[in-house]
Amino acid sequence: MEDVIKVLLVDDHEMVRIGLAAVLGTEDGIEVVGEASNGAEGIRLAQLYRPDIVLMDLVMEGMDGIETTRRLLALYPDCKVIVLTSFLDDDKMYPVIEAGAFSYLLKTSRASEIAQAIRSAAKGQPILESQVASKIMHRFRQPKPAAALHESLTERELEVLCLIAEGKSNQDTADLLYIGIKTVKFHVTNILSKLGVEDRTQAAIYAFKNGLIK
């Protein structure tokens, strides 16, 4: 006989909790051990019942689902949090996943899908609602911004670039940095090449645009 999966409901809407409890109560091997109307109560009940799975709402008064998830998993790392929410906003979805949420479902999910997510989570198999999975895939498929060109410059080249932007001549730069004029010219050539600019004026403009000179 399989162990019963203990589930805690954390949602500030009473009708949602009643509906979930009624639906899950008909599922073999799943037992709703408690219902909490806010995050603080959810943590208290988790300490009391030690659930295997927590169905977590995100938007609640007081402690929201993100912070509740973070605190709950700090206390009980083996507990699996399944987010059940109406929201797909980036500022809610990604933080709660980073906080340790195991699965993410929308409240439009069918009862059978929620029950399956609970059973899968108990086996260590996360489930993401299709819209959630699409958003995550889209985010990570976005090309990463190219590194700023000046990041390839050496510390000395950055010093020379800043002096160029301040209008210093090669001789001024050599005197200020205590290096030879040939060395300055060598650095200037490298700077223009790395920044992909044609002359000192364009290099100076680059320095100002990228905040290298205040």
From TrEMBL:
Recite the UniProt keywords alphabetically. Answer: DNA-binding, Phosphoprotein, Transcription, Transcription regulation
Domain of life, per the record? Bacteria
Domain Response regulatory: residue ranges: 6-122
Instruction: Report whether Signal shows up as a keyword of the record.
Output: no
Q: State the PROSITE patterns in the record.
A: HTH_LUXR_2 (PS50043), RESPONSE_REGULATORY (PS50110)
Q: Where is the HTH luxR-type domain?
A: 146-211
Keyword DNA-binding present in the record's keywords: the answer is: yes
User: One GO molecular function term?
Assistant: DNA binding
Q: Which residues carry this modification: 4-aspartylphosphate?
A: D57
Q: Name one GO biological process term.
A: phosphorelay signal transduction system
- Output this protein's name: DNA-binding response regulator
Q: What is the lineage of its organism?
A: Bacteria, Bacillati, Bacillota, Bacilli, Bacillales
